[in-house]
Amino acid sequence: MKKFDAIIIGAGVIGCSISLALARRGIKTLNVDALPSAGYGSTSHSSAIVRPFYSHETSCALAHEARHRWLGWREFLGYTPGPIARYIETGGLILVRDGTDHQYENNLSILDKVGVEFQILSPQEIEKKYPGMSLRAFGPPKSQHEEGFGEPVAGEITGGIFIPASGYVSDPQLAASNLQVAAEHKGSSFSFNVRVTDILLEAGAISGVQLSGGDIIRAPTLVNAAGPHSAVINDMAGITSSLNFTTRPHRHEVTYLAAPPGYRHDAGFIVDLDAGVYQRPDSADMLIGSADPDCDPPEIVDPDDYNDQLTAQWTSQAVRAAQRWPELGIENNARGTVGLYDVSDDWIPIYDQTDLPGFYLAIGTSGNQFKNAPVVGDLMANVIENGAHDSSPSLLNLESLKRSIDLSFYSRKRDIQETGSVMA
């Protein structure tokens, strides 16, 4: 039998960040993960985009704070004996179609409140910055079997919101590994290729876990950072009914294509809700992900039994991107990645305690919380050390922004927020 102060289920970028933050506070932690190494699951499939464009002020502020840590990644880690992930600040563009300006008024107001610089680009400025891009309208997005799929419609892109303080991380799995190494340097432990098979209680509170090999690990604190398996762990702990909503594993595909002629890799990512996709550069390629348009029903899967091969969804995303980039060639052999998002009902994560003493949640992180990982560790350490959010809201100080945020925004008992997709 081994004893720790805290056990963290999961060693993705979120779980590793929590481990580092707790270790820096002198808390002896153990991360357990069913996969062979840190960041091997959902983290490795992340598009790793860093952007503060959100529909809620708390989300915007947290992302902008995290961006400062990505900028100083080596300094933040404090211990980097090997290669480290790179944050590449390219800026990013959100395309605005005619008649939809009002949909972004709240986002722009929030960017102003948080102090994030942005620029409103004209069609002419967009064409200059992104040569080869078509500004024709194609939306709302359609599925492949619908009439008119891939064909232009009346209307056009009339502008764009460009945010310079945005970019992407070169290697998301390496970022998780960096956090693991830094945490181990502070005394954290990691155990891979093992599953939690039972959650142990004493006097109605967490006392430890049993692992697949039969080992008993004792700790008074248990953090569910299990990503797509978060609902399984919640059921095991018996706390699912106490949550206002649940999390479910969504299957997502990301398409890779050789970038079209004239595509500027330093021009950053593009969010194209009119076509239903986003893009970012990736070496000589264009990476294309889904913005989860209404025409694509969510694909809820068993996290231990799902199709990990590229499907017709790959083609849909390729064609949608080619609408915007007419010179984009669609290759005969599909290249890309298939991964799972752990999605809450409103696409906003749960960072909170639970009704089970000693059991904490860092779940529902979907595809949009990778960027926040450098701050989520401190956020969860704050929740674990100070309690949240039932009696009084817990606050988190954002050092770079010189402001605090109310963590009840991430409460398990919050009201469902209005967010459309992974864009949140």
Instruction: Indicate the proportion of strand residues.
Output: 25-35%
Low-confidence stretches: none
Question: What gyration radius follows from the Cα positions, in whole Å?
Answer: 21 Å
Distance between the termini: 43 Å
- Helical proportion? 10-25%
Count of individual beta strands: 24
Overall average pLDDT: 94
Number of helices: 9
Description:
By secondary structure, this protein is of the alpha+beta class. It is 23% helix and 29% strand. The protein has helices at 13-23, 57-71, 73-77, 105-114, 123-129, 172-185, 230-237, 312-324, 373-386, and strands spanning 2-3, 6-9, 29-33, 49-50, 87-89, 92-97, 119-121, 136-137, 153-163, 167-169, 189-192, 196-202, 205-211, 216-218, 221-224, 247-258, 269-272, 277-282, 285-290, 335-344, 350-353, 359-363, 395-398, 403-406. A hairpin with a 4-residue loop joins strand 13 and strand 14 (216-218). Helix 1 runs parallel beside helix 6 and helix 2 crosses helix 4 (105-114). The longest helix is centred in the first third of the chain and has 15 residues, at 57-71. The chain is globular, with a radius of gyration of 21 Å. It starts with a strand and ends in an 18-residue tail after the last strand.
